[in-house]
Amino acid sequence: MTIVYLVGFMGSGKSTIAKRLSQLWNETYADTDQEIERMYEKKIPDIFIEQGESAFRDYESKVLKNLNEPIIATGGGIVERKENIEWMKQNGTIIYLYASFHEISKRLKDDMNRPLWGHSLEKRKILYKKRQAMYEACADITVDTDEKDVETVIQDIMECLNKSCMYLASYREVIIKSKER
Ligand SMILES: Nc1ncnc2c1ncn2[C@@H]1O[C@H](COP(=O)(O)OP(=O)(O)OP(=O)(O)O)[C@@H](O)[C@H]1O
Ligand SMILES: O=C(O)C1=C[C@@H](O)[C@@H](O)[C@H](O)C1
Ligand SMILES: [Mg+2]
């Protein structure tokens, strides 16, 4: 139980929150989307266009298993593969950043860098509903981010982690061990 995995729909704030947590905890973080773009030297929309979603999911699973930073922002579709959920469960704590469809729409507007957000409103809503059930099923902790600024979301995450004594104990151990090295 050493890694914090942030999951949630596109625009729920995984990348933003991972970066902020890493500053606060003075720990490194990784982002599966950024890592895919770095490793395969291609932008995500280009991977979708040239190789399709299935190839992207293969890259995503590979990248996830190669990361061991203490804080990891995942891509919105990480839950599409059961093996990814199992991996995260075995290696850390899964925090689901919840945001309503309305809130996500406000944040992303007509973002062009997320291929699956480029679909029709109806398709976006169907995907949102399907995914919501998937995030809920795998989450150890759920934090509602609606109408909360980044710092408030961070505070809520810290509170939840503090309540989760089991996690905190193991996390302290990791920090102590890494400082002894
Ligand atoms: N709590 C928040 N309140 C308002 N805006 C936010 C909040 N968190 C993130 N944002 C904004 O929403 C947008 C999307 O955030 P971010 O890229 O962190 O989402 P994500 O969950 O990583 O999405 P993806 O799954 O596509 O990688 C950014 O413009 C970011 O500044
Ligand atoms: O929700 C999704 O399936 C995606 C979310 C993004 O983070 C990227 O991983 C990509 O655009 C796919
Ligand atoms: Mg992101």
UniProtKB/TrEMBL annotation:
Q: Which HAMAP family match?
A: Shikimate_kinase
- Official protein name in the record: Shikimate kinase
* Database matches in InterPro entries: P-loop_NTPase, Shikimate/glucono_kinase, Shikimate_kinase/TSH1
Catalytic activity reads: shikimate + ATP = 3-phosphoshikimate + ADP + H(+)
- EC? 2.7.1.71
Q: How does it assemble?
A: Monomer.
Residues that, per the record, bind ATP:
G11, S12, G13, K14, S15, T16, R114
Biological function: Catalyzes the specific phosphorylation of the 3-hydroxyl group of shikimic acid using ATP as a cosubstrate.
User: What's the cofactor?
Assistant: Mg(2+)
- Superkingdom, taxonomy of origin: Bacteria
Q: What's in the GO CC field?
A: cytosol
Identify the residues that bind Mg(2+): S15
The major lineage groups are: Bacteria, Bacillati, Bacillota, Bacilli, Bacillales
Task: Tell me the keywords, alphabetical order.
Answer: Amino-acid biosynthesis, Aromatic amino acid biosynthesis, ATP-binding, Cytoplasm, Kinase, Magnesium, Metal-binding, Nucleotide-binding, Transferase
Q: In which pathway does it act?
A: Metabolic intermediate biosynthesis; chorismate biosynthesis; chorismate from D-erythrose 4-phosphate and phosphoenolpyruvate: step 5/7
Q: Which family does it belong to?
A: Belongs to the shikimate kinase family.
Whichever gene encodes this chain, its name is aroK
